[in-house]
Task: structure prediction
Amino acid sequence: MSIRIAVIDFPASNCNLDAIHVLNNVVNVKADLVWHNHFKESKYDGVVLPGGFSFGDYLRAGIIAAHSPAIEEARIMLKDGRPVIGICNGFQILTEAEFLPGALLQNESLKFICKWINLKVVNNKTAFTNKLNLGDVIDIPIAHGEGRYYTDNLKELEANEQIVFRYSTEQGDLTEDANPNGSLDNIAGICNLEQNCVGLMPHPERASEPILSPKRTDHGKLIFESMIEFIKRRIS
Amino acid sequence: MTKVKLNGNDVEIELTNWEFEEIKRKLNREPTITELGAYEVMWSEHCSYKSSRPKLKLFENAEENYDYVLAGPGQDAGVIDIGDGYALAFRIESHNHPSAIEPYHGAATGIGGIIRDILCMGVRPIALLDPLRFGPLRGNPHSQWLFKYVVKGIADYGNCTGIPTIGGEVEFDSSFESNCLVNVACIGLGTIEDFKHAPSRANNPGDYVVLMGGSTGRDGIHGVTFASRTLTEMSEADRPAVQIGDPFTKKMIIEATLEAVKTGHVRGLKDLGGGGLTCVISELTGDGNTGAKVDLREVFTREPGMNSYEIMLSESQERMTFIVKPEGLETVLDIFRKYEMNFAVIGRTDDSKVLKVFDEEELVVNIPAKALSESPTFKREEKRPSYLNELLTQKIPETNLSLDEIIYKLIASENICSKEWVYRQYDHEVGVRSVVKCGEGDSGVLRIIGTDKYIAASVGVNSKHCFLDPYEGAKGGLVEECGNIISNGAKPLAMVNCCNFGNPEIPESFWYFSKAVQGMNDFCRALKIPIVGGNVSFYNEDDVKKTAIKATPVIMIVGIIEGEKKIITLPFKDVGNEVFLIGETKAELGGSEYYSVIHNLEGGIPPSVDEKKIQNRWNFLFELYNRNLVKANHDVDKGGILITISEMCFKNKIGIDLDFTDCCEGHLRDDEFLFSESVGRFIIETSPEDHDLILDLAKQFNVNVKKIGVLNSKPVISVSGLKSGRFKLNLEKMKELFDSTIPNLMDI
Result:
């Protein structure tokens, strides 16, 4: 059986084609770009909510997309354990739709920030990190204006091992300087309790080919490969 | 403003009496008020190029003379064939006046407009670049306000539409204090097939005219006539002439348009920019030798009660016009429905060669389709400014500063320091094409996914040089922008320009324009670079000081790099490698940052260009590239060679021992050598074993090449071989100064 992934195309999901490119041409898995109103979960083994500015993000990042019928389809996938990932705006949608806890607030600097940063892997048991090692430091870029993660339940999140990625230095130190947007406890990505759903602000699709990386790495690819590995284990 | 009598009423118009008489003569009657509005817009300087056209005729016909040029000047964008079935479209435009009074929306809608121009060529917009000019930031809240919100406007609009901003240029100079410059450039990529699908004319009678996108409102009425006069203190009242952007709708328009073009049912395509519906329909039918009947009541308006004059002249953003084959109408409309875009079939083309616009039963416009685009031209007087002689002979006063103190001051100066504060706010990576990113090279480099081919692009010009000598300054701009993409390994393929000048009715201002056009023309013909498009923005004046801006003929160059291995970046790579200076340094300090920052002078002799020498240097570099001999390359720009070298040291924290003994022969003073901004020079890093080969090749290509240093691991630039002895520069201190200037001024 061949694996099939959906990349949801909300109006102005502008990282849609980037995710499709990486899945189809770099990870070599079948991926369809599906217009949000046309999405039906039954055909798919996993779903990607890409980055961008869904519906212009005029009200609050991700809030309108969170009410799209596509999210109810994705919720079925979430519940039956299929992998769901939200990248950047996708992460914002996942918190607005309450797939994931917490919220993403405006960056501390009040400015949009586009730069390569380092992430430390703090949970490698999720559907999207099983090919990474605990403590790995990966190169990946961010590009967002509202990426400051906040939750009232940090202790709970920690206790449940829901923190997946933290902003760090190249050496893996979780310093304030390494935190680009003021996120609580340097949190860059989290998962649900069941660990089949991950949201992260950085863009793995922009870090999946050495030519795009300042250090010629392709760490982002491991996140997508983990997803495929998870699906293979799940269906076998 | 001219007062005229129209059908017995007094009317004020932005045309001359002679032009008004000419309109009446052409129509053989008095125009209606809506027709007069249409003429006023279409015959404005902004739309008609009535002052500039006679000069722009100098440029050679790019489409005729270069087989890879698919679309040249006069089209919405220049388009070139870059091989492998791909077409590359690019254009640059100004949005100066709107940005000067409403920086956020002015800049944002500038981006919106240039994206539409590229989209009109049927290709996907894949990159933005923005050359900007403001007054000095220090102690100047007005300049800081303009700078902050122009950058935010570009960022918010570009980021939301998913088009990366991959490059640009900023200069700060007091001549731009009240008239900032916001130029916007866009690059589009598609197949040659895509491009052929989307001509910007209505060739066939019987096709439908479809308006799609945003609704038509009362914003931006007479935006172009506003852009065709000098800004004054009264210009605040013109704020309603600035449009409001909606990047989300724009993103939907991009996707819907590209999908519609792919169907093959779209026969003509044009965006609504300056002049609104009037401009679009008259150009589509005029250029296509057809006519059209349009019903204004079909147009979806933002508010009720808009009259025909307002609907025809509105410059509301985010609108496109499609000429659609009858049999494809439903297919195209279904695409618009999918994206939930508003649309209306507002008319049909016919073979009448007349544009008829109805407001219900009333015929409000009834004029030959070509009439609006056949504006008169004006021969403007030109006169070299009398102040130039004095400026060119300015001598520099003594300074008590030592050379290292001067360099520390220069690297922290506004025009030289890091522009990271700007490009961090731009998503410069969306689209997964950005290979050489902001700060890593002299140009932006994009891959063409699925090939081993790369696009390099650069924009800019040196306004201070152009102020002293617009002819050499424009040529210097070409050398510099070509040099930027060559530094990254590209060969220049084509150029477009954006001419920012003062009031063309003032002979001194027009002289600057005329000389700059001559300079571009002479250089491009000599170096065989086709000019495939341009934009002219006049009336950039400071009403308070009664002076024009410094002449700014912005150049945009695109080129191609043939293979990943041929991409070269700016940072020094390895300790032990050698560093060479390519090209002669002359005592050309006029308009230099050294003069302005250290001596507060605007004069002196600016750099001049010797085309033959430039060609030799480029050929020499291409030969080194073919042999893979170059590890890093950076073109020498503002501040001179030590600034250039410092920038190369920063990223990998590599130091250098410099020995200028061989370079300083002759009569050059130390400051002349170090701070000259002679154009067309490069600093390259090479491996020591290639030393002899490089010097042999230099001889072969008749290029002046000198070894100037060796890289080491100490965080120091040590300089020797000067007439005044040696000195050292602390790299950490340099980097701190380089990085902190703009954040210190802006983040308060």
Notes: The longest strand of chain B covers residues 124-134. Residues 141-161 of chain B form the longest helix (21 residues).
